[in-house]
Specification:
163 residues, globular, alpha+beta, Trna Endonuclease, Chain: A, domain 1
């Protein structure tokens, strides 16, 4: 049945109530302060610990004279923690961070499967990055960092050519 049209050309009230109306414009809602939003988002403490360890490892490497090439580069095989270079060597760095109350060693978590994964990630980065810095040598280092509950370094172990 066709809707009733009045002499003015408008649809009658009873029909207009059944016809969907246009959406009302969205009203602007004031943003909350960023700190209030951040308080509601609870980050993963392991992720925070890992990022802290990577930052401390990078500071260590910079003190040794290395320059940052890339940090937290994602490949289809995973994420490379740090890629640094000196005058002749491009270094792929795997960082292992733990709390001081954990009894395990850093290197126990750097098993053959993880080493193979880091090699695959490095090969992917080399293939994906044609504008990379020239280096005569490639090397895979491992840095193990132990952090106390306040976030201070208890120990830092740097194994050059770890694998």
């Amino acid at each position: 049945m066709a809707p009733k049209v009045t002499s003015s050309g408008r649809i009658g009230r009873e029909v207009a109530d059944r016809v969907p109306r246009r959406c009302e414009p969205v009203r602007s809602v004031p943003m909350t302060e960023p700190s209030a939003v951040e308080d509601r988002i609870v980050p993963d403490p392991r992720h925070q610990l890992g990022r802290l360890g990577e930052r401390l490892a990078l500071e260590h490497l910079v003190r040794l004279g290395y320059k940052l090439v890339s940090a937290n580069h994602r490949t289809r095989f995973g994420e490379i923690d740090l890629i640094v270079r000196d005058a002749t060597t491009l270094v792929f760095v795997e960082v292992k961070t733990r709390r001081s109350h954990r009894p395990d060693r850093h290197w126990e978590r750097l098993d053959s499967r993880k080493r193979a994964q880091v090699r695959r990630m490095a090969a992917a980065w080399l293939a994906e990055t044609p504008a990379r810095p020239h280096a005569d040598d490639l090397r895979f280092d491992a840095i193990g960092i132990t952090i106390d509950p306040r976030g201070a370094i208890v120990a830092l172990e740097h194994l050059e050519a770890a694998f």
